[in-house]
Amino acid sequence: MADYKKPLPHPTAVTLPFWEAAKRHELQIQQCGSCRAYVFYPREVCSECLSPDMSWVQVSGKGILYSYTIAQAPTHSSFTEDVPYVIAIVELAEGPHITTNIVGCKIEDLKVNMPVVASFADVTPDITLVKFRPA
Ligand SMILES: [Zn+2]
């Protein structure tokens, strides 16, 4: 973990609750207090009604593989040894889409709409990445 060399997220005031939850191996996204929409990625106002009444809620971590691509060339030099790897969009059970990686699944076994569940990768003492694996 200490020698993790890939790009890392830089949490901001808006995104910090997501990263703090991930460190606890919990998936939290925002929910609008006005229209009740679940919202991801983190924002200052609701993407549906523009209300600033946003709060963080723990969600199931369950979803489906909405779409994916296979990276045959690294998207950054630090990913060279991972090629080929899966860049995916997961549709959470609560609705929002999250861009992620699929782990623990052979590429030939991937199927659009397959059930997936959040999987947490503790890559540094401060950062845990949220990936997904087959449910
Ligand atoms: Zn709203």
Written overview of the protein:
The protein starts with 15 loop residues before the first helix and ends with a strand. The mean pLDDT is 96. A 5-stranded antiparallel β-sheet has the order 6-5-4-7-8. It has one domain. It is 6% helix and 37% strand. With 135 residues, the chain is mainly β. Zinc ion binds next to loops.
How is the topology of this model organized?
Blueprint: H1 16-23, E1 28-32, E2 38-39, E3 54-58, E4 62-71, E5 85-92, E6 97-101, E7 115-122, E8 128-134
Antiparallel strand pairs: 1-2, 1-3, 4-5, 4-7, 5-6, 7-8
The chain binds zinc ion.
How many strand units? Answer: 8
Strand content: 35-45%
- The SSE order reads HEEEEEEEE
Output the number of helix runs.
1
Query: The biggest beta sheet, please?
Result: 5 strands, antiparallel
Structural class: mainly beta
What hetero molecules are in the model? zinc ion
**What does the overall shape look like?**
globular
As for the number of domains, it is: 1
Question: Which strand order do you get reading across the main beta sheet?
Answer: 6-5-4-7-8
Which residues sit in consecutive blocks of at least 5 with pLDDT less than 50? none
End-to-end Cα distance? 25 Å
Mean pLDDT: 96
Radius of gyration: 15 Å
Helix content: under 10%
Key terms for this structure?
5-stranded antiparallel sheet, 135 residues, mainly beta, 3-stranded antiparallel sheet, globular, binds zinc ion
